[in-house]
């Protein structure tokens, strides 16, 4: 997917009636380090933590986050 395609997809997603922005109100220290294999996954883990805290799903185009989601309480919504 090109950057332009990703931006177009993001614009379509944020225009959906069920889309909401959630507050960035959790400390980074609350992020689970489970399955994080490097510094580049920190932001993904943080976004998953925020979604879980607020009872929301995290829509993602990223294919490599499955190992970080909790199977007992999944928050990822692949698009």
The portion of residues assigned to helices is: 25-40%
**Poorly predicted ranges (pLDDT <50, ≥5 residues)?**
none
Total count of strands: 2
What average pLDDT do the residues reach? 83
Secondary structure class reads: alpha+beta
Q: Please outline the major beta sheet.
A: 2 strands, parallel
Order of helices and strands: HHEE
Main-sheet strand order equals: 1-2
Total number of helices: 2
Question: What overall form do the CA principal axes indicate?
Answer: globular
Strand portion: 5-15%
N-to-C terminal Cα separation, in Å? 13 Å
Domain count, please report it. Answer: 1
Rounded radius of gyration (Å): 13 Å
How is the secondary structure organized here?
Elements: H1 3-14, H2 42-53, E1 58-60, E2 76-78
Parallel strand pairs: 1-2
Describe the structure.
By secondary structure, this protein is of the alpha+beta class. The protein has one domain (about 5-79). The chain has helices at about 5-15, 40-55; strands at about 60, 75-79. A two-stranded parallel ribbon has the order 1-2. The longest helix has 12 residues, at about 5-15. The chain is globular. The model has no long low-confidence stretch (mean pLDDT about 85).
Which short descriptors sum up this protein?
8% strand, 2 helices
Briefly say what this structure is.
With 79 residues, this protein is α+β, with helices and mostly antiparallel strands. The protein is built from two helices and two strands, in the order ααββ.
């Amino acid at each position: 997917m090109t950057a332009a395609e990703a931006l177009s997809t993001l614009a379509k997603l944020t225009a959906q009636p069920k889309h909401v922005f959630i507050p960035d109100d959790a400390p980074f220290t609350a992020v689970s380090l489970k399955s994080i294999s490097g510094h580049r996954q920190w932001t993904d883990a943080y976004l998953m933590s925020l979604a879980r805290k607020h009872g929301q799903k995290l829509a993602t185009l990223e294919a490599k986050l499955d190992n970080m989601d909790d199977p007992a309480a999944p928050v990822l919504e692949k698009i």
